[in-house]
Design goal:
818 residues, six-stranded mixed beta sheet, CRISPR system single-strand-specific deoxyribonuclease Cas10/Csm1 (subtype III-A), exonuclease, endonuclease activity, 11% strand, 27 helices, five-stranded mixed beta sheet, globular
């Protein structure tokens, strides 16, 4: 059975126009913060038109509105079907709308809604702020915690472009002068972006929205939306502008005809959340091939394609929630601004609650459910929640937390509902699973696997993809794949096409493209890998071809980049602790929609953007199975992974501005490259579960759970032990024997902390034995650093770091010939 996607509704022109105006309405805050001079003649002609008077009746407030008008006039930016002058009025008049213009009043009302209704129309915003934006994750708190203040959690983010990942993490507050310099650079970059987009004269409104979302995220992701003295800078200019566009699009659908005062423009809305579950099981489950066969030599050819196949699965499943949301928007004729976020397989939409839109929403949801059934056979779980009808008050700062919690409750209920009751009555679904007259799950069939193989072969070199609605009755080519009625094709270079193009990273994006940020880390064969693999008798990959897992297992290096001979893979699985609860209850009372959207996007971008950039530059042989939302699954050379784990937590602590409520738990396991991927996944999940069950904010190293601080100390300790053992060269049997005994002492210490049933209590016998051993066999003069480090272990209550350190040292020594 071939499904036909619900018809693409004709784009609601006014909804798109006001959405674009909403996206652009505050771009003047960049040039205003930079104190860019506006020509006096332009100021005299336009200031009174867009800027309200202050109570003194002599000067104007909201100078950024004049800057918005000036930037749009300077760049001559326009939109299909809307004159440039009309666009300037729509975007710039949001603080002084023309009473006869319904569309201007809609943008004004949307601005207030996106701000949580508390906008002060005459607030001064000309102060110099050096602290920049509050760290989005630094503001999350449990309800029982002390109320959040700006002190201690407001680590500043500089005004930086999205491509500068080295400045993505919160840093110490900067002075106002450096902040102005950053805004000046961003303004000039934004003006160049708008001029380049102006040349794309034939672009539709749909494509224009996607292009602007990329441009504005690039330039405004770290700029505070408010510079008023009485407002906290807790929402980014990008997230605020996107929400203004979303509310404006909803109001444009709900209100037509004569102009109304902004306060009379009442809205009715629905929040829709689409969640895809079982992602990692789908990527590495039973239908995925093994990493390598038992016989490495005979499996060399097949293992070369494994990384591509797994990466294709990850890319495929990552697209699904995003495309499901776009399918809803397409059916409703709404712009991409109304997809508030798509993080970790969960997409959130804001829709107007009108009978026509609700009917189209029902059709789109029915299609999405049928597609999941027929194309995936329920190998991925689909949960969809639609809120009750919401008024404007539901998005006030007072009620917003309850609004989000109510939606989350509906999503939880959807997770345990059975949406396939009709399938049971038709006989192709039973309680035990999928039943069909065709053999196997759809995702196990040759046609699906072949398509993923072709997709995986193109991914390593692709920098973007095209997206178009699948023509009815027309089969996709080998270079394309159909997902939810959309046709996706990968491309290495930018080409002109009627299809909308989406770049995989802001660095790769060109003029006229949108952005689909994805974790596409796939290690490729390079001169560095060839040099490291030269000592092995392997049929290595050609340059720029994906490395096999057998090759990755032999690419571990130490801190100086020297090869470590022990061949093993390391697998790291991690996620953020209690994130759903934190977003439901930890945003605090008086929180705006923008703070929620910004925190979710920031976290997702940390994994898909910042972390991928760090891997590219510091750990080039780490393979990303999945990253996004709050979840992470990496495979790579074992010692690289051991070092990386500690760094990931350090980076994450910086991203959270040291917030003790936002923590990470992880599991780290090592394995031979012959282990099936499904078994590796299970081992990593069990290890991660151990970390969580041990109290969270921890890492489990195999079967041992320890704090991140202890793990970081273990990494340092193993370096000291390894150096004392000769650094792998001329290691004596006496030294090796000592390391084995240290491992045994650590095991005894761990067992003593968890005595078996019937035991009298923890024993300290290991301490006396280890103390005697060190005094007899380890000279403080010959090995002062090691002696001091081990003496600290003896006085510590937790010897787990010794277990990790001794284990890592022994793994490293196994690869050397004595």
């Amino acid at each position: 059975m071939k499904l036909s996607a619900p018809p693409k509704a004709e784009s609601h022109k006014k909804a798109h126009w006001v959405a674009i105006a909403g996206l652009l309405h505050d771009i003047g805050k960049l040039s205003a913060a930079a104190k860019m001079p506006i020509p006096q003649s332009y100021r005299e002609a336009n200031e009174a038109l867009v800027c309200p008077l202050l109570p003194d009746g002599r000067s104007h407030s909201h100078a950024h509105a004049l800057h918005t008008a000036w930037l749009l006039d300077e760049t001559e930016f326009f939109v299909e079907g809307l004159s440039q002058a009309e666009l300037v009025k729509l975007a710039a008049n949001h603080h002084k709308p023309d009473g006869d213009s319904l569309d201007q009043n809609i943008v004004t009302r949307a601005d207030r809604l996106a701000s949580g209704h508390d906008r002060n129309e005459v607030a001064s915003e000309d102060r110099d702020i050096g602290e920049g934006l509050y760290a989005p994750l630094g503001l999350l708190r449990w309800p029982s915690d002390t109320a959040v203040t700006s002190d201690g959690v407001s680590q500043g983010l500089s005004a930086v472009s999205l491509e500068r990942w080295e400045e993505y993490l919160p840093v110490a507050s900067r002075d106002a002068a450096s902040y102005r310099v950053g805004c000046d650079k961003l303004t000039k970059d934004l003006m160049q972006d708008l001029r380049e987009l102006r040349l794309e004269a034939a672009e539709s409104c749909d494509r224009r929205v996607d292009q602007l979302l990329l441009v504005l995220q690039r330039r405004m992701h770290a700029v505070p939306a408010s510079r008023a003295r009485n407002n906290e800078p807790d929402v980014t200019l990008f997230d605020h502008s996107r929400l203004v566009g979303a509310f404006a699009a909803c109001l444009a659908v709900l209100h037509e005809g004569e102009a109304k005062d902004p306060h009379q423009l009442k809205g009715r809305y629905r929040l829709v959340e689409i969640a895809v579950g079982g992602i990692q099981r789908f990527i590495s489950g039973s239908s995925a091939p093994q990493l390598d066969e038992d016989d490495e030599a005979s499996s060399a050819a097949s293992s070369k394609g494994l990384a591509k196949r797994l990466r294709a699965r990850s890319f495929f499943v990552g697209l699904i929630s995003w495309l499901a949301a776009r399918r809803v928007l397409s059916a409703c004729g709404l712009p991409a601004t109304n997809l508030i976020h798509d993080v970790g397989g969960r997409a959130l939409l804001l829709l107007p609650s009108s009978p026509l839109i609700m009917s189209r929403l029902d059709q789109a949801i029915a299609y999405i459910r049928d597609w999941f059934w027929l194309e995936l056979g329920n190998s991925l779980r689909l949960d969809i929640a639609v809120s009750e009808e919401l008024s404007d008050d539901a998005f006030s700062r007072k009620q917003m937390p309850a609004t989000l919690r109510a939606l989350d409750d509906r999503l939880a209920a959807a997770r345990y509902a059975n949406p396939y009751s009709a399938r049971i009555s038709h006989g192709d679904w039973q309680e035990t699973g999928y039943v069909s007259d065709r053999e196997g799950l759809p995702t196990d069939r040759k046609a699906f696997l072949d398509r993923l193989r072709d997709l995986g072969g193109r991914l390593p070199k692709a920098r973007s993809f095209w997206l178009i609605d699948s023509p009815a009755g027309e089969a996709a080519s080998s270079a394309e794949i159909d997902i939810l009625g959309f046709r996706v094709s990968l491309h290495e270079e930018q080409q002109r096409s009627l299809a909308q193009a989406f770049a995989f990273s802001p660095e790769a994006a060109r003029s006229g493209e949108g952005l689909y940020l994805t974790a596409t880390r796939l290690p490729l064969h390079s001169k560095q890998s060839a040099q490291l693999l030269a000592d092995y008798s392997l049929d290595t990959a050609e340059l720029n071809e994906p490395l096999t897992f057998s090759e990755l297992a032999r690419l571990s290096t130490d801190d100086q980049g020297q090869s470590i001979a022990q061949p093993m893979l390391g697998v790291l699985k991690a996620d953020v602790d209690h994130l759903g609860m934190l977003f439901g209850y930890g945003l605090g009372e008086g929180v705006s929609f923008g703070r929620y959207a910004g925190a979710a996007r920031y976290l997702d971008t940390f994994f898909k953007g910042f972390l991928m950039d760090r891997l590219e530059k510091q750990y080039p042989f780490i393979y990303t199975v999945f990253a996004g939302g709050d979840d992470l699954f990496l495979v790579g050379p074992w010692y690289d992974m051991a070092r990386l784990a500690a760094q990931i937590n350090t980076w994450f602590r910086q991203a959270a501005a040291g917030n003790p409520c936002v923590t990470l738990s992880a599991g780290l396991v090592f394995s031979k490259p012959t282990t099936p991927i499904a078994r590796l996944t299970e081992a990593a999940e069990e290890s991660e579960k151990l970390a969580k069950n041990s109290g969270r904010n921890r890492i489990a190293f195999g079967s041992v759970s320890l704090s991140w601080q202890a793990y970081s100390e273990a990494i340092d300790l193993q370096r000291v032990i390894f150096a004392a053992a000769g650094g792998g060269e001329a290691t004596t049997s006496q030294k090796s024997s000592l390391i084995y005994r240290l491992l045994q002492y650590s095991r005894q210490a761990i067992e003593s902390d968890t005595p078996s049933e019937g035991a009298q209590g923890p024993t300290l016998k290991w301490r006396s034995q280890m103390s005697y051993d060190l005094a007899r066999n380890l000279s403080p003069k010959e090995f002062p650093q090691l002696h001091e480090a081990l003496s600290q272990v003896l006085t510590s209550r937790d010897a787990r770091r010794l277990y990790v350190a001794a284990s890592l040292t022994l793994y490293r020594l196994r690869g050397f010939k004595s």
